[in-house]
What we know:
Blueprint: H1 2-11, H2 13-43, E1 46-47, E2 54-55, H3 61-68, H4 70-104, H5 107-122, H6 125-136, H7 142-147, H8 159-183, H9 187-195, H10 200-229, H11 232-237, H12 244-252, H13 256-280
Helix pairs in contact: 2-13, 4-8, 4-10, 5-8, 8-10, 9-10, 10-13, 12-13
Amino acid sequence: MRSSVATWMHKRPKMRLLALLAAPGLWLVVAYLGALGALLITAFFTIDSFTGNIVAQFNLGNFQDMLTDPAYRNVVLRTLGIAISVTLICAIFAIPMAFFMAKIAKPKSQKILVALVLTPLWASYLVKIYAWRSMLEPNTGVIDWLLGPIGIHSPGFGGPAIIIGLAYLWLPYMILPIYAGLERLPNSLIDASGDLGARNFYTFRKVILPLIFPSLVAGSMFTFSLSLGDYITAQIIGGKLQMLGNVVYQNFSINLPFAATIATIPVTIMALYLWLVRRTGALASL
């Protein structure tokens, strides 16, 4: 019986591939898409104001409250602005760092540099954020203590602090894809551009950037999505500012349907972002 099954799998490579993908595909449908489906269904329910129980009755009231209340619109715009700012900052810092690692550093040093980039990921998320809290503390923080005498002061807790903290957290996720893209970039293309008289910035804009664009998009998917759904950073160093994750966290225990409604916003934004990325064809070039 085993030999016949093995022979069948060997003769039918397409069926073999489908059989290998069946278990991961089933896990994706049940654990991920199933959870998203349950979340979307819950968003259309309401909650009994007297008992606090969920009323499984189709209702658009949660979406109406979310769309008409200016406070929630401000939270959405703030979260989107923070996620975009973090992504841009990570790209600005990651490109030169990845270029140095891939094209300038010696081969023996590249592995060390990659390990150094990965090292912050081994530390606890909370430890890193609380470390930034001690650095950003107004008047008594590390930044004011070190840079205060030369006129540079901490921005304090708020939007800039959230952007700084998230950019620090997710920077490795932007560096590594760009480094992988630059490592595959032939040095001959850069040399040829220089031999033809192109300056460094022109070579970067016309030769390097188009070729590493898929890697840049891949890194942005990490930084953008992780920033969009974060709430712990805002809770620790954000002061009074709230992001979408904080609103979901606050409503989860008291009004689950409304929390599910708010949670559909980042899911919708990421779905739209992935659709735009797919339209560019960047994912097909990875």
